[in-house]
Write a structure and sequence with these properties.
Blueprint (H helix, E strand, L loop, with lengths): L1 E6 L8 E6 L2 E5 L24 E3 L5 H4 L2 H6 L5 E5 H32 L10 H8 L2 E4 L4 E5 L2 E7 L7 E9 L2 E7 L22 E5 L13 H15 L3 E4 L5 H14 L11 E4 L1 H10 L9 H8 L10 E4 L2 H9 L5 E4 L9 H8 L6 E4 L8 H6 L4 E4 L2 E4 L3 E4 L9 H8 L8 E5 L3 H15 L3 E2 L6 E3 L5 E3 L16 H23 L5 H18 L2
Parallel strand pairs: 3-4, 4-5, 5-6, 10-11, 11-20, 12-15, 12-16, 13-14, 13-15, 16-19, 20-21
Antiparallel strand pairs: 1-2, 1-22, 2-3, 7-8, 8-9, 9-10, 17-18, 22-23
Length: about 525
Protein backbone atom coordinates (compact mmCIF):
# COMPACT_ATOMS: atom_id res chain seq x y z
CA UNK A 1 0.00 0.00 0.00
CA UNK A 2 1.73 3.18 -1.24
CA UNK A 3 0.98 6.82 -1.95
CA UNK A 4 2.88 8.91 -4.52
CA UNK A 5 2.70 12.64 -5.28
CA UNK A 6 2.84 13.85 -8.89
CA UNK A 7 1.19 17.27 -8.81
CA UNK A 8 0.67 20.33 -6.58
CA UNK A 9 3.71 19.22 -4.55
CA UNK A 10 5.30 22.45 -3.28
CA UNK A 11 3.15 24.15 -5.93
CA UNK A 12 -0.43 25.47 -5.93
CA UNK A 13 -1.84 23.93 -9.11
CA UNK A 14 -1.88 20.64 -11.01
CA UNK A 15 -3.16 18.37 -8.22
CA UNK A 16 -2.40 14.69 -8.84
CA UNK A 17 -1.78 11.91 -6.30
CA UNK A 18 -1.67 8.14 -6.86
CA UNK A 19 -2.45 5.31 -4.44
CA UNK A 20 -1.27 1.74 -5.12
CA UNK A 21 -3.16 -0.95 -3.18
CA UNK A 22 -4.60 -4.43 -3.75
CA UNK A 23 -3.11 -4.49 -7.25
CA UNK A 24 -5.17 -1.40 -8.09
CA UNK A 25 -3.99 2.06 -9.14
CA UNK A 26 -6.14 4.94 -7.92
CA UNK A 27 -5.51 8.51 -9.07
CA UNK A 28 -6.91 11.34 -6.93
CA UNK A 29 -7.37 14.47 -9.08
CA UNK A 30 -5.61 15.06 -12.37
CA UNK A 31 -5.26 18.81 -12.67
CA UNK A 32 -3.76 21.21 -15.14
CA UNK A 33 -0.85 23.35 -14.02
CA UNK A 34 -1.26 27.10 -14.28
CA UNK A 35 1.83 29.27 -14.33
CA UNK A 36 5.51 28.27 -14.36
CA UNK A 37 6.85 25.22 -12.51
CA UNK A 38 8.97 25.68 -9.39
CA UNK A 39 10.28 22.10 -9.63
CA UNK A 40 10.78 19.78 -12.57
CA UNK A 41 7.85 17.38 -12.86
CA UNK A 42 8.56 13.66 -12.63
CA UNK A 43 6.97 11.36 -15.19
CA UNK A 44 3.96 9.39 -14.01
CA UNK A 45 5.05 5.87 -12.95
CA UNK A 46 2.15 4.28 -14.85
CA UNK A 47 0.51 4.61 -18.25
CA UNK A 48 -3.04 6.03 -18.39
CA UNK A 49 -4.26 2.57 -19.43
CA UNK A 50 -2.87 1.15 -16.15
CA UNK A 51 -4.94 3.46 -13.95
CA UNK A 52 -8.03 1.70 -12.60
CA UNK A 53 -9.96 4.62 -11.07
CA UNK A 54 -9.84 8.41 -10.89
CA UNK A 55 -11.37 10.15 -7.87
CA UNK A 56 -12.11 13.86 -8.32
CA UNK A 57 -12.45 16.32 -5.42
CA UNK A 58 -14.01 19.15 -7.46
CA UNK A 59 -14.40 20.65 -10.92
CA UNK A 60 -11.78 23.42 -10.96
CA UNK A 61 -9.36 22.96 -13.84
CA UNK A 62 -6.27 22.75 -11.62
CA UNK A 63 -7.83 19.54 -10.25
CA UNK A 64 -9.73 18.15 -13.25
CA UNK A 65 -8.13 19.70 -16.33
CA UNK A 66 -5.97 16.78 -17.49
CA UNK A 67 -8.52 13.98 -17.08
CA UNK A 68 -9.58 14.11 -20.78
CA UNK A 69 -5.89 13.72 -21.70
CA UNK A 70 -5.85 10.52 -19.63
CA UNK A 71 -8.87 9.24 -21.58
CA UNK A 72 -7.31 10.28 -24.91
CA UNK A 73 -4.21 8.24 -24.01
CA UNK A 74 -5.87 5.03 -22.91
CA UNK A 75 -7.58 5.46 -19.52
CA UNK A 76 -10.79 3.39 -19.58
CA UNK A 77 -11.79 3.25 -15.91
CA UNK A 78 -14.49 5.06 -13.97
CA UNK A 79 -14.21 8.64 -12.69
CA UNK A 80 -15.88 9.09 -9.31
CA UNK A 81 -17.10 12.52 -8.18
CA UNK A 82 -20.20 14.15 -6.76
CA UNK A 83 -23.09 14.73 -9.16
CA UNK A 84 -22.61 18.52 -9.02
CA UNK A 85 -18.91 18.15 -9.87
CA UNK A 86 -19.83 15.96 -12.81
CA UNK A 87 -22.29 18.60 -14.07
CA UNK A 88 -19.74 21.40 -13.75
CA UNK A 89 -17.06 19.30 -15.47
CA UNK A 90 -19.31 18.95 -18.51
CA UNK A 91 -19.00 22.68 -19.17
CA UNK A 92 -15.55 23.39 -17.74
CA UNK A 93 -13.69 20.59 -19.53
CA UNK A 94 -15.46 21.39 -22.79
CA UNK A 95 -14.45 25.03 -22.41
CA UNK A 96 -10.87 23.90 -21.72
CA UNK A 97 -10.94 21.70 -24.85
CA UNK A 98 -12.06 24.63 -26.99
CA UNK A 99 -9.13 26.66 -25.65
CA UNK A 100 -6.74 23.78 -26.47
CA UNK A 101 -8.12 23.47 -30.00
CA UNK A 102 -8.07 27.23 -30.58
CA UNK A 103 -4.43 27.44 -29.48
CA UNK A 104 -3.57 24.50 -31.75
CA UNK A 105 -5.14 26.24 -34.76
CA UNK A 106 -3.19 29.43 -34.01
CA UNK A 107 0.11 27.58 -33.53
CA UNK A 108 -0.39 25.53 -36.67
CA UNK A 109 -1.03 28.62 -38.80
CA UNK A 110 2.38 29.87 -37.64
CA UNK A 111 3.94 26.42 -38.11
CA UNK A 112 2.80 26.32 -41.75
CA UNK A 113 4.54 29.61 -42.47
CA UNK A 114 7.73 28.68 -40.61
CA UNK A 115 7.89 25.00 -41.58
CA UNK A 116 7.77 23.88 -37.94
CA UNK A 117 6.11 20.67 -36.70
CA UNK A 118 2.34 20.54 -36.35
CA UNK A 119 1.08 21.14 -32.80
CA UNK A 120 -1.37 18.63 -31.35
CA UNK A 121 -3.77 19.86 -28.64
CA UNK A 122 -3.63 18.18 -25.23
CA UNK A 123 -7.18 16.98 -25.89
CA UNK A 124 -10.25 17.82 -27.96
CA UNK A 125 -13.98 18.28 -27.45
CA UNK A 126 -14.45 14.68 -28.64
CA UNK A 127 -12.12 13.50 -25.87
CA UNK A 128 -14.24 15.40 -23.31
CA UNK A 129 -17.41 13.74 -24.64
CA UNK A 130 -15.80 10.32 -24.12
CA UNK A 131 -14.53 11.34 -20.69
CA UNK A 132 -17.96 12.38 -19.44
CA UNK A 133 -19.30 8.88 -20.18
CA UNK A 134 -16.82 7.50 -17.62
CA UNK A 135 -18.15 9.61 -14.72
CA UNK A 136 -19.98 8.00 -11.81
CA UNK A 137 -21.97 10.60 -9.87
CA UNK A 138 -21.93 10.07 -6.10
CA UNK A 139 -23.81 11.52 -3.11
CA UNK A 140 -22.23 13.05 -0.01
CA UNK A 141 -21.71 10.85 3.06
CA UNK A 142 -22.56 7.59 1.28
CA UNK A 143 -20.07 4.72 1.10
CA UNK A 144 -19.15 3.31 -2.32
CA UNK A 145 -17.08 0.18 -3.05
CA UNK A 146 -14.51 0.57 -5.82
CA UNK A 147 -13.69 -3.12 -5.50
CA UNK A 148 -13.26 -5.65 -2.74
CA UNK A 149 -11.49 -4.05 0.27
CA UNK A 150 -11.45 -0.47 -1.15
CA UNK A 151 -14.28 1.87 -0.12
CA UNK A 152 -14.69 5.60 -0.68
CA UNK A 153 -16.85 8.39 0.71
CA UNK A 154 -17.33 12.03 -0.40
CA UNK A 155 -17.66 14.69 2.33
CA UNK A 156 -18.69 18.30 1.64
CA UNK A 157 -15.58 20.51 1.46
CA UNK A 158 -17.50 23.82 1.14
CA UNK A 159 -15.24 25.25 -1.57
CA UNK A 160 -17.38 25.05 -4.72
CA UNK A 161 -20.72 23.50 -5.60
CA UNK A 162 -20.10 19.76 -5.28
CA UNK A 163 -16.57 20.08 -3.89
CA UNK A 164 -15.51 17.32 -1.54
CA UNK A 165 -12.98 15.80 0.74
CA UNK A 166 -12.54 12.12 -0.08
CA UNK A 167 -12.11 9.32 2.45
CA UNK A 168 -10.54 6.12 1.10
CA UNK A 169 -10.63 3.01 3.29
CA UNK A 170 -8.26 0.24 2.19
CA UNK A 171 -7.69 -3.22 3.64
CA UNK A 172 -4.63 -5.10 2.40
CA UNK A 173 -3.02 -8.21 3.92
CA UNK A 174 -5.19 -7.81 7.02
CA UNK A 175 -4.06 -4.19 7.57
CA UNK A 176 -6.73 -1.47 7.31
CA UNK A 177 -5.82 2.16 6.64
CA UNK A 178 -7.99 5.24 5.96
CA UNK A 179 -6.56 8.04 3.82
CA UNK A 180 -8.45 11.36 3.68
CA UNK A 181 -7.82 13.94 0.96
CA UNK A 182 -9.01 17.37 2.07
CA UNK A 183 -9.49 18.65 -1.47
CA UNK A 184 -9.74 22.45 -1.48
CA UNK A 185 -11.40 23.38 1.81
CA UNK A 186 -13.76 26.34 1.66
CA UNK A 187 -14.11 29.51 3.65
CA UNK A 188 -17.01 29.65 6.12
CA UNK A 189 -20.36 31.49 5.95
CA UNK A 190 -20.35 31.90 2.18
CA UNK A 191 -23.52 32.32 0.11
CA UNK A 192 -25.26 29.29 -1.43
CA UNK A 193 -23.04 26.42 -0.24
CA UNK A 194 -22.49 24.82 3.15
CA UNK A 195 -19.44 25.18 5.37
CA UNK A 196 -16.86 22.36 5.14
CA UNK A 197 -17.92 19.15 6.92
CA UNK A 198 -15.60 17.13 9.11
CA UNK A 199 -14.57 13.56 8.18
CA UNK A 200 -14.63 11.23 11.18
CA UNK A 201 -11.37 9.30 11.06
CA UNK A 202 -8.08 9.13 9.19
CA UNK A 203 -4.77 7.34 9.51
CA UNK A 204 -3.23 9.56 6.85
CA UNK A 205 -4.37 13.01 5.68
CA UNK A 206 -3.42 14.88 2.52
CA UNK A 207 -4.28 18.53 3.15
CA UNK A 208 -4.13 21.61 0.95
CA UNK A 209 -2.25 24.74 2.06
CA UNK A 210 -3.29 27.53 -0.33
CA UNK A 211 -3.70 29.88 2.66
CA UNK A 212 -1.41 27.86 4.91
CA UNK A 213 0.46 30.93 6.18
CA UNK A 214 -2.34 33.52 6.05
CA UNK A 215 -5.48 34.52 7.95
CA UNK A 216 -8.53 36.15 6.39
CA UNK A 217 -9.35 39.67 7.61
CA UNK A 218 -12.51 40.31 9.60
CA UNK A 219 -15.49 39.63 7.34
CA UNK A 220 -17.07 42.89 6.10
CA UNK A 221 -20.77 43.46 5.40
CA UNK A 222 -20.66 42.62 1.67
CA UNK A 223 -24.24 43.76 0.98
CA UNK A 224 -23.66 47.23 2.48
CA UNK A 225 -20.28 47.59 0.79
CA UNK A 226 -21.63 46.55 -2.62
CA UNK A 227 -24.76 48.72 -2.22
CA UNK A 228 -22.67 51.83 -1.57
CA UNK A 229 -20.51 51.23 -4.64
CA UNK A 230 -23.56 50.65 -6.87
CA UNK A 231 -25.41 53.70 -5.51
CA UNK A 232 -22.51 56.11 -5.94
CA UNK A 233 -21.67 54.83 -9.42
CA UNK A 234 -25.25 54.94 -10.72
CA UNK A 235 -25.73 58.44 -9.27
CA UNK A 236 -22.74 59.53 -11.36
CA UNK A 237 -24.34 57.92 -14.44
CA UNK A 238 -21.70 55.20 -14.75
CA UNK A 239 -21.52 51.40 -14.94
CA UNK A 240 -20.20 48.99 -12.31
CA UNK A 241 -17.89 46.62 -14.17
CA UNK A 242 -16.92 43.48 -12.21
CA UNK A 243 -14.19 41.13 -13.48
CA UNK A 244 -15.18 37.78 -11.98
CA UNK A 245 -14.35 34.10 -12.17
CA UNK A 246 -17.09 32.35 -14.12
CA UNK A 247 -17.86 29.58 -11.62
CA UNK A 248 -18.43 30.20 -7.93
CA UNK A 249 -17.65 33.90 -7.56
CA UNK A 250 -20.15 35.06 -10.22
CA UNK A 251 -22.97 33.12 -8.56
CA UNK A 252 -22.05 34.53 -5.12
CA UNK A 253 -22.28 38.06 -6.56
CA UNK A 254 -25.70 37.34 -8.05
CA UNK A 255 -26.83 36.13 -4.62
CA UNK A 256 -25.72 39.44 -3.04
CA UNK A 257 -27.26 41.56 -5.81
CA UNK A 258 -30.59 39.71 -5.42
CA UNK A 259 -30.67 40.77 -1.76
CA UNK A 260 -29.89 44.38 -2.71
CA UNK A 261 -32.70 44.41 -5.27
CA UNK A 262 -35.15 42.56 -3.03
CA UNK A 263 -34.65 45.06 -0.20
CA UNK A 264 -34.60 48.11 -2.53
CA UNK A 265 -31.28 49.23 -1.06
CA UNK A 266 -30.28 51.24 -4.17
CA UNK A 267 -32.52 54.30 -4.45
CA UNK A 268 -33.43 56.20 -7.60
CA UNK A 269 -32.50 53.35 -9.97
CA UNK A 270 -35.43 50.96 -9.77
CA UNK A 271 -34.94 47.58 -11.46
CA UNK A 272 -31.39 48.46 -12.57
CA UNK A 273 -30.01 46.08 -15.24
CA UNK A 274 -27.45 43.40 -14.43
CA UNK A 275 -25.57 41.53 -17.16
CA UNK A 276 -23.60 38.30 -16.83
CA UNK A 277 -21.43 38.35 -19.94
CA UNK A 278 -19.51 35.09 -20.05
CA UNK A 279 -20.77 31.95 -21.82
CA UNK A 280 -19.17 29.70 -19.20
CA UNK A 281 -20.61 31.76 -16.33
CA UNK A 282 -24.04 31.63 -17.96
CA UNK A 283 -23.92 27.81 -18.17
CA UNK A 284 -22.64 27.56 -14.60
CA UNK A 285 -25.42 29.85 -13.38
CA UNK A 286 -27.98 27.50 -14.93
CA UNK A 287 -26.37 24.55 -13.09
CA UNK A 288 -26.47 26.50 -9.80
CA UNK A 289 -30.17 27.17 -10.52
CA UNK A 290 -30.98 23.47 -11.03
CA UNK A 291 -32.39 20.99 -8.51
CA UNK A 292 -29.11 20.10 -6.78
CA UNK A 293 -30.66 20.65 -3.35
CA UNK A 294 -28.21 18.39 -1.52
CA UNK A 295 -25.40 20.89 -2.08
CA UNK A 296 -26.98 24.14 -0.83
CA UNK A 297 -26.92 25.66 2.65
CA UNK A 298 -30.05 26.01 4.80
CA UNK A 299 -30.65 29.65 3.87
CA UNK A 300 -30.62 28.80 0.17
CA UNK A 301 -32.91 25.80 0.73
CA UNK A 302 -35.39 28.04 2.60
CA UNK A 303 -35.49 30.38 -0.41
CA UNK A 304 -36.01 27.49 -2.81
CA UNK A 305 -38.87 26.12 -0.68
CA UNK A 306 -40.55 29.54 -0.99
CA UNK A 307 -40.15 29.40 -4.77
CA UNK A 308 -37.38 32.03 -4.81
CA UNK A 309 -34.40 31.46 -7.09
CA UNK A 310 -31.42 32.69 -4.97
CA UNK A 311 -29.37 33.92 -7.94
CA UNK A 312 -32.00 35.18 -10.39
CA UNK A 313 -34.07 38.35 -10.23
CA UNK A 314 -35.84 40.95 -12.43
CA UNK A 315 -33.39 42.91 -14.58
CA UNK A 316 -30.87 40.05 -14.93
CA UNK A 317 -29.69 39.26 -18.47
CA UNK A 318 -27.45 36.30 -19.28
CA UNK A 319 -25.47 37.20 -22.41
CA UNK A 320 -24.32 34.33 -24.60
CA UNK A 321 -23.45 35.50 -28.11
CA UNK A 322 -20.89 38.11 -29.18
CA UNK A 323 -23.76 40.28 -30.45
CA UNK A 324 -25.33 40.14 -26.98
CA UNK A 325 -22.02 41.29 -25.51
CA UNK A 326 -21.64 44.21 -27.95
CA UNK A 327 -25.17 45.47 -27.24
CA UNK A 328 -24.38 45.88 -23.52
CA UNK A 329 -22.13 48.87 -24.15
CA UNK A 330 -24.52 50.47 -26.66
CA UNK A 331 -27.08 50.95 -23.87
CA UNK A 332 -26.25 54.08 -21.82
CA UNK A 333 -28.39 53.09 -18.81
CA UNK A 334 -26.28 52.67 -15.65
CA UNK A 335 -25.82 48.93 -15.15
CA UNK A 336 -23.77 46.17 -13.53
CA UNK A 337 -21.62 44.12 -15.90
CA UNK A 338 -20.13 40.86 -14.54
CA UNK A 339 -17.69 39.25 -16.96
CA UNK A 340 -14.70 36.89 -17.09
CA UNK A 341 -11.84 36.48 -16.70
CA UNK A 342 -11.41 37.47 -13.07
CA UNK A 343 -7.86 38.78 -13.53
CA UNK A 344 -8.66 40.54 -16.85
CA UNK A 345 -6.13 38.47 -18.79
CA UNK A 346 -8.61 37.25 -21.40
CA UNK A 347 -12.29 37.09 -22.25
CA UNK A 348 -15.04 39.63 -22.76
CA UNK A 349 -14.11 41.63 -19.66
CA UNK A 350 -11.34 43.30 -21.66
CA UNK A 351 -13.91 44.82 -24.04
CA UNK A 352 -15.94 46.15 -21.12
CA UNK A 353 -12.80 47.67 -19.60
CA UNK A 354 -12.07 49.36 -22.92
CA UNK A 355 -15.53 50.96 -22.87
CA UNK A 356 -15.53 51.94 -19.18
CA UNK A 357 -12.02 52.48 -17.79
CA UNK A 358 -11.72 55.93 -19.38
CA UNK A 359 -15.10 57.04 -17.95
CA UNK A 360 -14.67 58.84 -14.60
CA UNK A 361 -18.33 58.11 -13.78
CA UNK A 362 -17.84 54.30 -13.98
CA UNK A 363 -16.42 51.90 -11.37
CA UNK A 364 -14.33 48.79 -11.90
CA UNK A 365 -14.86 46.51 -8.91
CA UNK A 366 -12.42 43.66 -8.24
CA UNK A 367 -13.76 40.75 -6.19
CA UNK A 368 -10.89 38.27 -6.23
CA UNK A 369 -7.14 37.87 -5.94
CA UNK A 370 -5.12 39.51 -8.73
CA UNK A 371 -1.86 37.66 -9.47
CA UNK A 372 1.37 39.55 -10.01
CA UNK A 373 1.81 40.62 -13.64
CA UNK A 374 -1.88 40.37 -14.59
CA UNK A 375 -3.81 43.31 -15.99
CA UNK A 376 -6.07 43.21 -12.93
CA UNK A 377 -3.05 43.58 -10.63
CA UNK A 378 -1.67 46.46 -12.70
CA UNK A 379 -5.00 48.31 -12.49
CA UNK A 380 -5.45 47.73 -8.74
CA UNK A 381 -1.92 48.98 -8.08
CA UNK A 382 -2.78 52.39 -9.49
CA UNK A 383 -1.86 52.45 -13.19
CA UNK A 384 -3.07 55.66 -14.84
CA UNK A 385 -3.14 54.18 -18.33
CA UNK A 386 -3.08 50.70 -19.83
CA UNK A 387 -3.07 49.13 -23.29
CA UNK A 388 -6.01 47.13 -24.63
CA UNK A 389 -6.26 45.81 -28.19
CA UNK A 390 -3.28 47.99 -29.16
CA UNK A 391 -4.99 51.14 -27.88
CA UNK A 392 -3.87 53.23 -24.92
CA UNK A 393 -6.71 53.65 -22.40
CA UNK A 394 -6.73 56.22 -19.59
CA UNK A 395 -7.74 54.85 -16.19
CA UNK A 396 -10.25 57.47 -15.04
CA UNK A 397 -12.82 55.12 -13.54
CA UNK A 398 -13.12 54.57 -9.80
CA UNK A 399 -11.17 51.40 -8.88
CA UNK A 400 -12.61 49.46 -5.94
CA UNK A 401 -11.98 46.08 -4.28
CA UNK A 402 -14.45 43.96 -2.32
CA UNK A 403 -12.09 42.74 0.34
CA UNK A 404 -12.29 39.45 2.20
CA UNK A 405 -14.10 37.31 -0.38
CA UNK A 406 -12.19 34.06 -0.66
CA UNK A 407 -13.17 30.52 -1.57
CA UNK A 408 -10.37 28.96 0.51
CA UNK A 409 -10.06 28.23 4.22
CA UNK A 410 -7.31 30.20 5.93
CA UNK A 411 -4.56 28.74 8.11
CA UNK A 412 -6.58 28.54 11.34
CA UNK A 413 -9.60 27.03 9.54
CA UNK A 414 -7.35 24.35 8.06
CA UNK A 415 -5.89 23.59 11.50
CA UNK A 416 -9.36 23.40 13.10
CA UNK A 417 -10.53 20.99 10.38
CA UNK A 418 -7.43 18.84 10.92
CA UNK A 419 -7.97 18.89 14.68
CA UNK A 420 -11.51 17.53 14.28
CA UNK A 421 -10.62 13.90 13.58
CA UNK A 422 -11.68 11.42 16.26
CA UNK A 423 -8.10 10.20 16.65
CA UNK A 424 -4.80 11.68 15.56
CA UNK A 425 -3.59 10.74 12.06
CA UNK A 426 -0.20 9.03 11.82
CA UNK A 427 1.03 11.42 9.14
CA UNK A 428 -0.22 14.61 7.51
CA UNK A 429 0.97 15.29 3.95
CA UNK A 430 0.83 18.97 3.02
CA UNK A 431 0.37 19.89 -0.65
CA UNK A 432 -1.40 22.42 -2.90
CA UNK A 433 0.52 25.44 -1.64
CA UNK A 434 3.35 27.59 -2.91
CA UNK A 435 6.88 26.37 -2.28
CA UNK A 436 7.70 27.79 1.17
CA UNK A 437 4.06 27.83 2.34
CA UNK A 438 3.87 24.01 2.25
CA UNK A 439 6.86 23.75 4.58
CA UNK A 440 5.65 26.58 6.84
CA UNK A 441 2.23 25.00 7.23
CA UNK A 442 3.68 21.54 7.90
CA UNK A 443 5.77 23.05 10.72
CA UNK A 444 2.74 24.91 12.04
CA UNK A 445 0.70 21.68 12.16
CA UNK A 446 3.45 19.96 14.15
CA UNK A 447 3.77 22.91 16.56
CA UNK A 448 0.03 23.35 17.12
CA UNK A 449 -1.28 19.79 16.99
CA UNK A 450 1.81 17.68 17.75
CA UNK A 451 1.22 15.69 14.54
CA UNK A 452 3.92 14.45 12.21
CA UNK A 453 3.53 16.58 9.08
CA UNK A 454 5.62 16.70 5.93
CA UNK A 455 5.44 18.46 2.55
CA UNK A 456 6.28 15.94 -0.22
CA UNK A 457 8.06 16.90 -3.43
CA UNK A 458 7.02 15.84 -6.92
CA UNK A 459 7.74 12.12 -7.31
CA UNK A 460 7.84 11.43 -3.56
CA UNK A 461 6.51 8.03 -2.49
CA UNK A 462 5.52 6.67 0.94
CA UNK A 463 4.62 3.25 2.34
CA UNK A 464 1.22 3.50 4.04
CA UNK A 465 1.76 0.48 6.26
CA UNK A 466 5.10 1.44 7.79
CA UNK A 467 4.90 5.18 7.04
CA UNK A 468 8.40 5.09 5.55
CA UNK A 469 9.46 7.46 2.78
CA UNK A 470 10.43 5.28 -0.21
CA UNK A 471 11.38 8.11 -2.60
CA UNK A 472 12.09 11.72 -1.69
CA UNK A 473 11.06 13.13 -5.05
CA UNK A 474 12.60 16.04 -6.91
CA UNK A 475 13.60 18.84 -4.52
CA UNK A 476 15.84 20.73 -6.98
CA UNK A 477 14.34 24.02 -8.07
CA UNK A 478 14.27 24.90 -11.76
CA UNK A 479 17.05 27.39 -12.49
CA UNK A 480 16.55 29.53 -15.55
CA UNK A 481 19.72 30.79 -17.21
CA UNK A 482 19.34 34.06 -19.06
CA UNK A 483 22.91 34.73 -20.12
CA UNK A 484 24.50 33.52 -23.36
CA UNK A 485 27.01 30.70 -23.38
CA UNK A 486 29.85 31.64 -21.08
CA UNK A 487 30.40 35.27 -22.05
CA UNK A 488 32.31 36.90 -19.18
CA UNK A 489 31.55 40.42 -20.36
CA UNK A 490 27.82 39.56 -20.59
CA UNK A 491 27.85 38.06 -17.10
CA UNK A 492 29.48 41.19 -15.71
CA UNK A 493 26.92 43.38 -17.43
CA UNK A 494 24.09 41.28 -16.03
CA UNK A 495 25.44 41.66 -12.48
CA UNK A 496 25.49 45.43 -13.05
CA UNK A 497 21.85 45.23 -14.15
CA UNK A 498 20.97 43.32 -10.98
CA UNK A 499 22.68 46.01 -8.87
CA UNK A 500 20.63 48.65 -10.66
CA UNK A 501 17.45 46.68 -9.85
CA UNK A 502 18.35 46.65 -6.16
CA UNK A 503 18.91 50.41 -6.26
CA UNK A 504 15.51 50.82 -7.90
CA UNK A 505 13.89 48.73 -5.17
CA UNK A 506 15.47 51.01 -2.58
CA UNK A 507 14.02 54.07 -4.31
CA UNK A 508 10.60 52.37 -4.55
CA UNK A 509 10.58 51.84 -0.76
CA UNK A 510 11.08 55.60 -0.26
CA UNK A 511 7.73 56.17 -2.03
CA UNK A 512 5.75 54.01 0.44
CA UNK A 513 4.29 57.04 2.29
CA UNK A 514 4.12 59.42 -0.69
CA UNK A 515 0.98 60.74 -2.35
CA UNK A 516 -0.92 58.24 -4.53
CA UNK A 517 -0.57 60.56 -7.51
CA UNK A 518 3.25 60.51 -7.28
CA UNK A 519 3.30 56.74 -6.69
CA UNK A 520 1.10 56.14 -9.73
CA UNK A 521 3.27 58.39 -11.92
CA UNK A 522 6.44 56.58 -10.78
CA UNK A 523 4.79 53.18 -11.39
CA UNK A 524 3.76 54.21 -14.91
CA UNK A 525 7.36 55.17 -15.72
CA UNK A 526 8.66 51.80 -14.47
CA UNK A 527 5.96 49.89 -16.40
CA UNK A 528 6.80 51.88 -19.53
CA UNK A 529 10.49 51.02 -19.08
CA UNK A 530 9.64 47.33 -18.64
CA UNK A 531 7.48 47.36 -21.77
CA UNK A 532 10.32 48.96 -23.74
CA UNK A 533 12.93 46.32 -22.73
CA UNK A 534 10.70 43.24 -22.41
CA UNK A 535 11.96 40.29 -24.49
Amino acid sequence: MKIAFYGAAHEVTGSCTIIFANNKTIMVDCGMEQGPDTYENCNLPVLPSQIDYILLTHAHIDHSGKIPAMTANGFKGHIYSTVATENLCKIMLLDSAHIQESEARWRNRKAKRSGDDIYTPLYTADDVTKTMKQFVGCDYDKEYSLCEDIKIKFIDAGHLLGSSSISIEIEEFGQKETIVFSGDLGNTKRPLIRDPRQPEKADYVVIESTYGNRLHPERPDYVSQLTQIIQQTFDRGGNVVIPSFAIGRTQELLYLIRIIKEQNLVSGHKNFPVYVDSPLAVEATEIYSSDLYDYFDEETLDLLEKGINPIKFPGLTLSVTSDDSVRINLDKTPKIIISASGMCEAGRIRHHLKHNLWRKESTVLFVGYQAVGTLGRIITEGATKIKLFGEEIQVNAQIEQLEGISGHADRDMLVNWLNGFTHKPKTVFVNHGSDTVCDEFAEHITDKLSLFATAPYNGAEYDLISGACLKKGNSSRIIKHHTSSGSVRESSAFKRLQTACRQLQSVVEQYRECANKDIAKFADQIISLCDKWKR
